[in-house]
Amino acid sequence: MRRRSWSETARRWAKLASRELSTVAITIFGLLLITFFIARVIPIDPVLAVVGDNARPETYDAARIELGLDKPLWQQFAVYVGKVFTGDLGRSVLTSNTVVDDIRRVFPATLELATLGTLIGCLLGIPLGVLAAVYQGRWPDQVARVIGLFGYSIPVFWLGLMGLLLFYAKLGWVGGPGRAGVAFQDLITPITGILVIDAAIEGDWEAFRDAWSHLILPSAVLGILSVAYISRMTRSFMITELQQQYVIAARVKGLSEFRVVWRHAMHNAFVPLVTVIAVSYMHLLEGSVLTETIFAWPGLGRYLTHSLLNADMNAVLGGTLVIGAVFIGVNLLSDILGRLVDPRTR
């Protein structure tokens, strides 16, 4: 009997895994197809980006053949897919490096910015949303609504500039633009690519404090956006859960309000909240272009902006593929976590 139950569980998980992998494969294929045709329909000649506007016709034709643009579209797409799966995203015209090397260099900066911003959003947004739901219609709820309205309506570029003016220029509490001060540039050996972690690994606490002082303000700017979104969704989920029969029954049994809210209602609200946190994290990963520009943060968003302005399409499409792949991975991870947290979804 036990052996049969284990086999049934294994078949169920295998069926679930095959379905998830099929969905991921179809999504990746669609992402590749879209980025390929974007490169073909935009009014930018990739050959001219390589050889220049003053190249002779024979040079232009030779470069076009070398890039494979003389082949039918289906062959070009097959070659493109093959290169992507072998890790070849082309070479950046702007930096003369391979796009993979450029992304490997700039992506950790965006990763640490978005991760800390999401962490701030969770630590502040979830308790704020819970309080707003518990005290619905009273002053904690009003405070949460004002904070949410502030986070949604204030332009990021204005918030970043005001933060630099107040906390850096006036008070001197944080570091200025960039990831590190001039005295600490290129002093930390890149191990993970994330400066605060690399400085801690090396035991250079002075460099750690400097990197942290540069990181906290742009992360807080992104964190305000995350707080607004997460607190609003937490409030909505908790209001729904607090109206359920099991909450009423728990209160009738004499359980403390803290246990009713955080042990029972929050446990059920956490399942959809995992998806909300994942969506917020993905938006910060791909939507931090303005923040990185204002703070001169050498991340993926700034890299893509400069590449687009210089018609460096290999870099733009390579970065788009990486962001799309991260979206797929984070979304898949949130689905798995949701099933682990709530057995009813398995």
Which features would summarize this protein structure in a list?
single chain, 346 residues, MetI-like fold, 14 helices
Distance between the termini: 21 Å
Overall 3D shape: globular
* Helical run tally: 14
Low-confidence stretches: none
Tell me the number of strands.
0
* Percentage of β-strand residues: under 5%
Largest sheet: none
Q: Percent of residues in helical segments?
A: over 70%
CATH homology group of the largest domain: MetI-like
CATH architectural arrangement of the largest domain: Orthogonal Bundle
Structural class by secondary-structure content: mainly alpha
Instruction: Return the domain count.
Output: 2
The CATH topology of the largest domain, please? MetI-like fold
Keywords: Cell membrane, Membrane, Transmembrane, Transmembrane helix, Transport
Subcellular location: Cell membrane
InterPro entries: BPD_transp_1_N, MetI-like, MetI-like_sf
Organism: Bosea vaviloviae
